Amino acid sequence: MALKNTLDVNRQFFIRASPRKVFEAISTPRGLASWMVVRADLPATAGAMYELEFDGGWRHRGTVRRFRAGRSIALAWAWDGVPLKATVLTLSVRPKKGGALFRLVHAGFPREKKWMDLYGGAEWGWTYYGMNLKSVLETRHDLRSRWDG
């Protein structure tokens, strides 16, 4: 069996919150600021431009590839100052007895040495942020610290 030409980050979290609450947290500026970013401009429209600002001032800008209200969003994900093509980040929610299943797939990292640091950072980062989303929605405790990283 041949290796795929790209690597993907796949994370899944069961969250004891309604699918509506989880979708709001992953798709609205206020929701995103509660667990991931310090500021978000995320229109609920495919084809629109979005911008996410993280602690420390670094930003991600790109295009909303897909927005399915209550279900999923997909974002073209590019890095400021990094001359590499964009990957695609998909966040989705589905009902699960007792809560919701949140799935994150960050797809399209080429299997090339110049991409490995970004891929490794995505592996670490999405695990960190996914656990924080779970914590915020289940316990209202934001785990982020300025010393993380």
In short:
By secondary structure, the chain is α+β, with helices and mostly antiparallel strands. Helix content is 26%, strand content 38%. The radius of gyration is 15 Å and the shape is globular.
Kindly describe this structure.
With 149 residues, the protein is α+β, with helices and mostly antiparallel strands. The protein has one domain (6-139): START domain (Alpha-D-Glucose-1,6-Bisphosphate, Chain A, domain 4, 2-Layer Sandwich), CATH 3.30.530. Helix content is 26%, strand content 38%. It is built from 3 helices and 7 strands; from the N terminus they run βααββββββα.
Secondary structure layout plus pairing:
Blueprint: E1 6-15, H1 19-27, H2 29-33, E2 39-41, E3 49-53, E4 59-68, E5 72-77, E6 87-96, E7 99-110, H3 116-139
Antiparallel strand pairs: 1-7, 2-3, 3-4, 4-5, 5-6, 6-7
